[in-house]
């Protein structure tokens, strides 16, 4: 049964100390706590109770509200953002976007190791308490050096299979690229099955001489099997297709939308062994917006890209990226040109984890 403590201002300090530090079955005295300290490398952080003394009622309320906290990889929300802010007081340089990504998991593991906690990479009550009451420091210095190396292009090759989209899917580069990664992880599924049975898509309609189509952020526009009636989608419909398939297989893996990832983030994922579905253009030229349709749900004019293409990034060599291009197979491109177009296209990307 959970305990609830009502604290008055006069006795708040003592009760907070007991609440924070005492095991469930026994309590220590305040004097015993005064003798405790944490040593991290060559640093000595102040005793935990010093932080508590500064704001006992505030901390007590915070801890009571977080007794059941449990956050893990790919969770999202305000609680995740709070943890990101807490990590950053130690210099972890985590983007405070409310998404529990891979770099955040590594940072949590590093923090837990330094504080002699179980290095699970997830947030439990013990980790949360340490994040709150431990004094700000440069705890993350060694981690940041390691992270910078991982965010720099290294000789890397992930041996994903080659899967060509044609002739069955002349406009199915997105779902073919996803299928390649699913095959790499051992799932025996074809590009056509993924396109026909899992990809959310909507056909075009015509009225009064106008073409009406879907929002490519919500559905694939048209039909990937059609040479002239298939266009494209961005990440969300492909993520939905991947997750529908994985859930049917009873898999614990997920398709993750990492759209918005910087060049350095993308390099990090590949160096960590993750092939990435990347939105680019057919010839790495700037995006061309010389077609259009009207959105079916609102009638809004939609300017469409005509040279969009999707590939799988699976390695680096020297100043080049290694790519599985579903039109031509395994190729290399100039890394600077590749990442320039990736950014121009809006930084759309997907991993499976």
Automatic annotation (TrEMBL):
SUPFAM superfamilies: PGBD-like. Residues 159-326 form the Peptidase C39-like domain. Pfam families: Peptidase_C39_2 (PF13529), PG_binding_1 (PF01471). Signal peptide: none annotated. Residues 77-131 form the Peptidoglycan binding-like domain. InterPro entries: Peptidase_C39-like, Peptidoglycan-bd-like, PGBD-like_sf, PGBDSf. PANTHER family: LMO0724 PROTEIN, PEPTIDASE C39-LIKE DOMAIN-CONTAINING PROTEIN. This is Peptidase C39-like domain-containing protein. It comes from Sutcliffiella cohnii.
């Amino acid at each position: 049964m959970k305990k609830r403590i009502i604290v008055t201002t006069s006795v708040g300090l003592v009760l907070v100390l007991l609440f924070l530090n005492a095991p469930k079955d026994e309590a220590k005295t305040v004097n015993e706590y005064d003798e405790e300290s944490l040593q991290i490398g060559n640093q000595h952080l102040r005793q935990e109770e010093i932080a508590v003394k500064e704001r006992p009622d505030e901390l007590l309320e915070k801890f009571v509200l977080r007794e059941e906290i449990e956050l893990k990889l790919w969770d999202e929300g305000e609680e995740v953002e709070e943890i990101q802010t807490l990590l950053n007081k130690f210099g972890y340089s985590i983007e405070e976007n409310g998404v529990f990504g891979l770099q955040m998991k590594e940072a949590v593991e590093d923090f837990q190791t330094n504080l002699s906690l179980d290095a699970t990479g997830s947030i439990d009550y013990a980790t949360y308490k340490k994040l709150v009451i431990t004094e700000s420091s440069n705890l993350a210095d060694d981690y940041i050096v390691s992270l910078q190396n991982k965010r720099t292009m290294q000789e890397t090759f992930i041996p994903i299979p080659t899967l060509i989209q044609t002739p069955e899917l002349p406009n199915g580069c997105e779902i073919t690229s996803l299928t390649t990664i699913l095959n790499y992880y051992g799932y025996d599924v074809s590009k056509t099955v993924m396109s026909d049975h899992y990809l959310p898509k909507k056909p075009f309609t015509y009225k009064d001489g106008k073409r009406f189509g879907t929002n490519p952020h919500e559905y694939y526009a048209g039909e990937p099997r059609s040479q002239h009636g298939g266009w494209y989608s961005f990440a969300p419909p492909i993520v939905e297709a991947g997750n529908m398939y994985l859930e049917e297989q009873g898999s614990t893996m997920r398709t993750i939308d990492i759209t918005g990832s910087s060049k350095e983030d993308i390099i990090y994922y590949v160096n960590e062994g993750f092939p990435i579905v990347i939105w680019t253009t057919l010839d790495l030229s700037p995006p061309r917006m010389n077609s259009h349709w009207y959105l079916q749900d609102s009638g809004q004019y939609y300017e469409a890209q005509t040279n969009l293409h999707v590939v799988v990034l699976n390695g680096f060599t020297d100043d080049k990226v290694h790519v599985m291009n579903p039109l031509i197979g395994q190729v290399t491109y100039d890394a600077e040109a590749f990442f320039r177009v990736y950014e121009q296209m809006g930084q759309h990307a997907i991993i499976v984890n």
